[in-house]
Write a structure and sequence with these properties.
With about 325 residues, the chain is an alpha/beta fold. Helices cover about 40% and strands about 15% of the residues.
Length: about 325
């Protein structure tokens, strides 16, 4: 029996993959498997992973013939996973030695559907601890109970898939797969669905994932059209939350978060290519028109004047029928 499956997508990360793989070796155990998914890398990542498949205990090497993006690569790993528990790691991040053994021990002791953890963010030489925005540690709770309040950062805003561990029963229920083809914000519909539909979770103060920020190849650093997939991702959050039995209660949080993300991108629009910047504005204006308008009114009223003004101005922007659809 495989106790833990670790799903690790890689795409053009030859500079960082050796550190990631060394940290996996420092976490190896006879009942752990490491599913290494090469998402059709064009650099030396495939050769690095081929060596790892021979040398890393528990390694399972899979390769995409075409690049599908992080969501699709994670789904490939999920489909191959055999573990009682599952977790994720990105191909440019790394782990503390022995971290996964502690993570498995935590979820087995708590006996819940999933556990969320803190992490260390690494930007150049700087290190900072980022914590799950949920104060009660080691206490099992229904995850939908921690989605609110709407005007504060909560557990659904801490969307990192690799900051936790998940029981296989969630995968069997279809709650761990990502929306295929999403190039960014793929973890937003995922974390919302997990909190709406799983039965139990807990947060623990366990540090062991080192998240590398500012990587030049990361989509968060690239202002191309793939960044605009956040519109598709949050449209899905709104659509699925609107079908929830507590839609009236949860939609204000979903709409306000969507608005905050739109405002964030508009506030740094200069990093986008000019054509993409124009598309960002038109798609965001259409998104505002698709939201439940009464809920949107309340969300804008609750925001600071700068963001609210920016979004109200955008809301008045004419939208073509093609973009609105």
């Amino acid at each position: 029996m495989v106790k833990l499956s670790v799903i690790v997508p890689f795409y053009n990360v030859q500079q960082y993959a050796p550190d990631t793989l060394r940290s996996l070796r420092a976490n190896a155990r006879e009942d752990f498997e490491f599913i290494l998914v090469d998402d059709c890398s064009k650099d030396e990542t495939p050769e690095i992973l081929e060596r790892a498949a021979r040398e890393l205990p528990g390694a399972v090497h899979l390769r995409h013939e075409t690049n599908g993006g992080l969501a699709t690569a994670r789904n490939t790993g999920l489909d191959a996973a055999r573990g009682e528990y599952l977790t994720f790691l990105d191909g440019d991040d790394w782990l503390a030695p022995g971290y996964y053994a502690q993570l498995v021990a935590a979820i087995e002791q708590l006996g819940c559907d999933f556990v969320r953890t803190d992490h260390v963010q690494c930007t150049a030489r700087a290190r900072s601890i980022h914590r799950v925005p949920h104060g009660r540690r080691g206490v099992v709770m229904p995850p939908r109970d921690v989605i609110l309040p709407a005007d504060r950062s909560t557990s659904v805003d801490y969307a990192y898939a690799w900051a936790g561990i998940y029981h296989r029963r969630l995968a069997d229920r279809g709650l761990l797969h990502f929306t295929d083809g999403l190039r960014t914000a793929e973890d937003r519909p995922w974390i919302w669905r997990l909190h709406r539909e799983a039965e139990s979770f807990a947060a623990v103060g366990l540090l062991g994932v080192f998240y590398r920020r500012g990587v030049a190849s990361s989509l968060t650093q690239i202002g191309d059209v793939r960044q605009l997939d956040f519109i598709r991702a949050f449209d899905q959050v709104i659509r699925e939350t609107a079908e929830d039995r507590e839609a009236d209660k949860l939609l204000p949080k979903a709409v306000r978060t969507y608005c905050a993300i739109i405002s964030h991108h508009l506030g740094s629009i200069e990093r986008f290519e000019p054509q993409v910047a124009r598309k960002l504005k038109s798609l965001s204006a259409a998104a505002l028109k698709r939201m439940p308008q009464g809920v949107l009114d309340d969300a804008l009223d609750s925001m600071d004047i700068q963001r609210a003004t920016r979004l109200r101005r955008l809301r008045r922007r004419p939208v073509s029928a093609e973009v609105a659809a």
